[in-house]
Fold:
Amino acid sequence: MEQRFKIETDGLARSWMRYDRKTLRDYLVQGVEDPRINIQSILTRHFLIHRLFGDKFWGLMEQELRFALVVNWLLKLLKASVSPWQLHALLDGLLQGQREADGLEIPPFLSETFASLSLPNYICDLLSWAPVETTDVPIPKYLMNTFAAIWRELLENEMPRRISVLEPGCGSANDYRFIDAYGLSRLLDYHGFDLCEKNIHNAKAMFPQACFKVGNVLEIDAPDKTFDHCFMHDLFEHLSVDAMELAISEICRVTRQGICVGFFNMHEADDHIVKTVGNYHWNKLSLVRTKALFQKHARHSSDGHAAVVDAIHIDTFLMSQFGRCDYHNKDAYTLIVRL
Ligand SMILES: C[S@@+](CC[C@H](N)C(=O)[O-])C[C@H]1O[C@@H](n2cnc3c(N)ncnc32)[C@H](O)[C@@H]1O
Structure:
């Protein structure tokens, strides 16, 4: 590896190692980042499920996205201190097919989702779990785990071929925790790595049997075409533009079939906006340029065949599928690369 990338690697490792282990374990799996309701984490799990089973679970995937929208909508109301009786009024409104209740809008995606479920359903529970005095208590685990339970039960009896999967920048098994809880890990030959030793320590403490290693996306420790698929979230924005290109060439080199990458800071302009923060970056990446890099490196590593790169702008996707466009991050994109 070139000296400049070694220097960047040292800076990146220092940046993440300054956090304590508990912070690293918790901070990216809370609130809107919670992989049970974070749309990009859900799309990644769907990417894997689709690779395993094709279109078989399409209907359930749609329902899981709806669930995430419903819980995100409710979390916003709870943040704005909605009262327990307003939640009850919303439930009455839904049952009676109204468009608003007690001064609160009942958004169309909510009524549609409610109508698509048999009664009673998780929306009934979500709107009536709070004690009468306050809504200032977390949504109970069993409700947040609604789809974990469904997927786990459905996937339990499936016996497809296992696929090998690589996750660079896996953090403290942030997404793997849910891949496991949703019954998917059994179907994968998973390999996660992260530059930050404390993250790997956390991941191994939670999953001693799984494969987690300290590693660098700028120099992936694996021969060409080792893995069927690769997925990752929220890493490229933190690299210099040259290091990002090197990282893209590395993941294209080691992957045979498909790549799914979540970005938190991307835009449709022609240029990247480079911003350094201490030892790392917080860039706003150009969609066209990033796509072009995948096309260039995927072509090199797949014997000249052009790769197909699909970009999903999360807010637009939710609007087109569910008529909902208030995603918390307007700059979130997921790219799916077929090699
Ligand atoms: C913003 S966090 C995202 C973590 C996880 N993917 C998630 O979405 O919750 C970025 C992660 O990338 C790791 N990282 C940074 N530079 C890296 C590199 N060069 N190689 C591998 N991992 C790296 C960090 O240690 C950190 O865990």
In short: The CA atoms of residues 42 and 175 lie 9 Å apart.
